[in-house]
């Protein structure tokens, strides 16, 4: 069933937070733990969903901005290191994988697609979560937010993953949940699919994406449509 899509797009690149996993509860737990250590009140779940998407450093900065004085100049590296330490102690909820994700990735991989991840989540946390979810074996190239000097919306992480997977951008599709994924894909000259259930932080109609899917298991059909267009 995926044969046209497979010939046209042998490489598939995915975003992580908000696309494959609903990580807002764990990210929120980590950020609120950090804020509490600084005497700050917690931020709400809906605030967290607006903070996710630009990497851990921006997340932490936004947490401080939303609860009082912004971080003092020069304080970020230490506070960020502490956030990573806290997050590393939070066990991954096995139910954080969105419905249909594991089955669909397995199906696409079995069909012959090569799968990779380009996330703004720090690399060490990405590998920890993938490992705890037993998903590491599905993704043959993983680029975290700090793997390269640039993160999304730069196209570099996507191009790096495509190259690691032995592909070319014109034979690859990006799938993500926010504007950074769309901008990175556009700059890499890759088609882009957006999921409607993540943390878009703006109306879906403003993402400027090629196809919006409501559920992850709609991806194989979306790829067929892109391949036919
Ligand atoms: O951690 C973030 O800020 C976002 O991560 P993502 O790129 O996987 O959505
Ligand atoms: Mg995301």
TrEMBL record:
<comment type="pathway">
    <text>Organic acid metabolism; glycolate biosynthesis; glycolate from 2-phosphoglycolate: step 1/1.</text>
</comment>
<dbReference type="InterPro" id="IPR023198">
    <property type="entry name" value="PGP-like_dom2"/>
</dbReference>
<dbReference type="InterPro" id="IPR036412">
    <property type="entry name" value="HAD-like_sf"/>
</dbReference>
<dbReference type="GO" id="GO:0046872">
    <property type="term" value="F:metal ion binding"/>
</dbReference>
<comment type="similarity">
    <text>Belongs to the HAD-like hydrolase superfamily. CbbY/CbbZ/Gph/YieH family.</text>
</comment>
<keyword id="KW-0119">Carbohydrate metabolism</keyword>
<dbReference type="InterPro" id="IPR037512">
    <property type="entry name" value="PGPase_prok"/>
</dbReference>
<feature type="active site" description="Nucleophile">
    <location>
        <position position="15"/>
    </location>
</feature>
<dbReference type="GO" id="GO:0046295">
    <property type="term" value="P:glycolate biosynthetic process"/>
</dbReference>
<keyword id="KW-0479">Metal-binding</keyword>
<keyword id="KW-0460">Magnesium</keyword>
<dbReference type="GO" id="GO:0006281">
    <property type="term" value="P:DNA repair"/>
</dbReference>
<dbReference type="InterPro" id="IPR050155">
    <property type="entry name" value="HAD-like_hydrolase_sf"/>
</dbReference>
<keyword id="KW-0378">Hydrolase</keyword>
<dbReference type="GO" id="GO:0008967">
    <property type="term" value="F:phosphoglycolate phosphatase activity"/>
</dbReference>
<comment type="function">
    <text>Specifically catalyzes the dephosphorylation of 2-phosphoglycolate. Is involved in the dissimilation of the intracellular 2-phosphoglycolate formed during the DNA repair of 3'-phosphoglycolate ends, a major class of DNA lesions induced by oxidative stress.</text>
</comment>
<feature type="binding site">
    <location>
        <position position="177"/>
    </location>
    <ligand>
        <name>Mg(2+)</name>
    </ligand>
</feature>
<dbReference type="InterPro" id="IPR023214">
    <property type="entry name" value="HAD_sf"/>
</dbReference>
<feature type="binding site">
    <location>
        <position position="17"/>
    </location>
    <ligand>
        <name>Mg(2+)</name>
    </ligand>
</feature>
<protein>
    <recommendedName>
        <fullName>Phosphoglycolate phosphatase</fullName>
        <ecNumber>3.1.3.18</ecNumber>
    </recommendedName>
</protein>
<feature type="binding site">
    <location>
        <position position="15"/>
    </location>
    <ligand>
        <name>Mg(2+)</name>
    </ligand>
</feature>
<dbReference type="GO" id="GO:0005975">
    <property type="term" value="P:carbohydrate metabolic process"/>
</dbReference>
<dbReference type="GO" id="GO:0005829">
    <property type="term" value="C:cytosol"/>
</dbReference>
<dbReference type="InterPro" id="IPR006439">
    <property type="entry name" value="HAD-SF_hydro_IA"/>
</dbReference>
<dbReference type="InterPro" id="IPR041492">
    <property type="entry name" value="HAD_2"/>
</dbReference>
<dbReference type="Pfam" id="PF13419">
    <property type="entry name" value="HAD_2"/>
</dbReference>
């Amino acid at each position: 069933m995926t044969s046209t899509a497979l010939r046209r797009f042998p490489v598939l690149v995915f975003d992580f937070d908000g696309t494959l996993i609903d990580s807002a509860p764990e990210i929120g737990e980590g950020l609120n733990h950090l804020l509490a250590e600084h005497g700050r009140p917690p931020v709400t779940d809906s605030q967290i969903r607006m903070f996710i998407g630009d990497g851990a450093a921006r997340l932490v900065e936004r947490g401080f901005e939303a609860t009082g004085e912004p971080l003092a100049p020069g304080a970020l590296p230490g506070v960020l290191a502490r956030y990573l330490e806290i997050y590393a102690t939070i066990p991954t909820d096995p139910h954080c994988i969105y419905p249909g994700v594991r089955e669909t990735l397995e199906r696409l991989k079995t069909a012959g697609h090569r799968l990779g991840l380009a996330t703004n989540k720090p690399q060490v946390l990405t590998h920890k979560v993938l490992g705890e979810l037993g998903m590491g074996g599905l993704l043959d190239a993983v680029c975290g937010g700090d793997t390269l000097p640039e993160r999304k919306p730069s196209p570099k992480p996507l191009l790096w993953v495509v190259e690691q997977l032995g592909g070319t951008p014109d034979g690859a599709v990006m799938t993500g949940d926010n504007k950074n994924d769309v901008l990175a894909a556009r700059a890499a000259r890759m088609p882009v699919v957006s999921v409607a259930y993540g943390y878009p932080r703006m109306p879906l109609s403003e993402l400027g994406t090629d196809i919006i899917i409501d559920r992850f298991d709609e991806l194989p059909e979306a790829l067929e449509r892109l391949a036919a267009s």
